[in-house]
Amino acid sequence: MQHVLIIVNDAPYGSERLFNALRLAIQLNEQESPLAQVSLFLLSDAITAVIPKQNPNEGYNIQQMLEILIAQNSPVKFCGSCMHARGLAQLNVIEGCEVATMDELAQWVLSADKTVSF
């Protein structure tokens, strides 16, 4: 089984980068051959995606897509330093999303067979 790491830096709305990253992640999880383990790491403004109950105007719902990814047993982590820098460290996050460090991201990069950055 391949380990595919997806790293996203852009805000959840206003650009389609996170949307497309999530579409790819979900699709990779649905492949029968070869099987893949997909991990998602959110950095910079992408960390705001883990804030629940956002009301998007774009026609897609990032929370719902993250919940699908989590239900597919893909780990979803976000940068704690990025949350703190934006004054968001005390906010609730979508269930199943985990705060992480750059060290954890570094370990994921080293263990991944493929890394894709959006």
- Percent in helix: 25-40%
Span between termini: 23 Å
Estimate the mean pLDDT confidence. Answer: 95
Q: What's the arrangement of strands in the largest beta sheet? A: 4-3-2-1-5
What is the oligomeric state here?
A: single chain
Structural class by sheet pairing and helices = alpha/beta
The major beta sheet can be summarized as: 5 strands, parallel
Please report the total strand number as a whole number.
Answer: 5
Proportion of residues in β-strands: 15-25%
Low-confidence stretches: none
Secondary-structure element series = EHEHEHEHE
Radius of gyration: 13 Å
Number of helices: 4
Shape: globular
Describe the protein in words.
Helices cover 34% and strands 22% of the residues. By secondary structure, it is an alpha/beta fold. It has a five-stranded parallel β-sheet with strand order 4-3-2-1-5, sandwiched between helices. The two termini are 23 Å apart. 30% of the residues are buried.
Keywords, please?
alpha/beta, five-stranded parallel sheet
